[in-house]
Specification:
about 300 residues, alpha/beta, single chain, globular, Rossmann fold
Length: about 300
């Protein structure tokens, strides 16, 4: 009963937070329209649509934050590690509101074609409209079920065990991915903060699907929250950027009502997932969430290839 009331209180706090955030974003939207940013190149989404980015004090701050990480860190890292050029193709899985796409647009075709997969309908609609006149960019996606989408899931009164037992498969169909790629084999597959919101079985199935649309020497770069001995010590000492007190079937999270809001995995489970997917892990670059740094993201980066 105590846990039930704790979850009720947590959900009410979340509703209040969403209300305050909505008001702040509405003010930014007015500035966005006043500056005619809807026609900006590279494209930048309206603040109220951008579920991947927090509120900002001004539209200038919002704009700078949207472009900074992808242009200054992510794309330079990916271009270097995958040796991208004008003939290459990149699949950005779970591309959100096109943060990495904007960096590709800013690069003026130095790094080839960009394919973005996004399950959130509003985000996908905006991306397809914003990039419709540039043939280097293609976007597609298929919508997730409500409980499998941490963005739209408003939570429930279940335990994490009940959420896990009632889970549905949440992977893209190969026909949908092939429609996006349109006969092209990707040279680089990237995802940022996607596997950190998925159950392990879905991650394995997704990586296997990627294998069918990858070029022979394709590189796979995906971010995780990995619990190795260093991260476990950081968690135990309260030095990590979050606590992960709930564990179910190898998944660590902090929310009973919406467990996919954050999923972390122990190192041996990450290694197992890649083996079952037919991948060899080439490199792991640990992020700042547990007290280290890879210079790109706070999450851990896993670089792999097909065996």
């Amino acid at each position: 009963m105590l846990n039930y009331f704790k979850r009720v209180i947590s959900l009410n706090r979340e509703r209040i937070f969403r209300l305050l955030r909505s008001r702040a974003l509405s003010k930014l939207d007015l500035q966005y329209e006043k500056l005619s940013l809807s026609s900006h190149w590279p494209p930048i989404p309206p603040p109220s649509l951008n579920f991947n980015q927090g509120t900002a004090s001004s539209i200038a701050d919002y704009k700078a934050t949207y472009f900074k990480a992808s242009i200054e860190k992510e794309l330079p890292f990916l271009a270097s590690i995958a040796k991208l050029n004008q003939k290459c193709s990149t699949l950005d899985y779970g591309c959100g509101l096109g943060r990495l796409a904007s960096a590709f647009a800013n690069s003026e075709n130095q790094f080839g074609s960009y394919f973005g997969w996004e399950p959130e309908p509003q985000a996908l609609q905006w991306l397809q409209a914003a990039y419709k006149n540039n043939p280097r960019f293609r976007f597609d996606g298929s919508q997730l079920m409500g409980d499998m989408n941490y963005v739209t899931n408003r939570g429930n009164y279940s335990t994490v065990e009940e959420n896990y037992q009632s889970r549905a498969e949440a992977v893209p169909g190969i026909a949908d991915l092939m429609r996006l790629m349109n006969g092209v084999k990707f040279d680089l597959q990237f995802s940022s903060s996607v596997f950190t919101h998925m159950w392990s079985s879905d991650i394995t199935l997704t990586l296997k699907l990627f294998n069918d649309i990858a070029s022979e020497n394709a590189l796979f770069v995906n971010t995780w929250l990995i619990i190795d001995s260093f991260a476990q010590t950081s968690l135990d000492r309260g030095e990590a950027d979050r606590s992960l007190p709930i564990e179910i079937n190898g998944v660590l999270t902090y929310s009973h009502s919406n467990p996919l809001v954050c999923t972390a995995y122990r190192q041996n489970d990450v290694e197992r997932i890649y083996r079952e997917s037919g991948h060899q892990i080439l490199e792991v670059l640990h992020g700042s969430w547990s007290g280290r740094s890879n210079g790109v993201t706070y999450q851990d980066i896993v670089v792999s290839k097909q065996i």
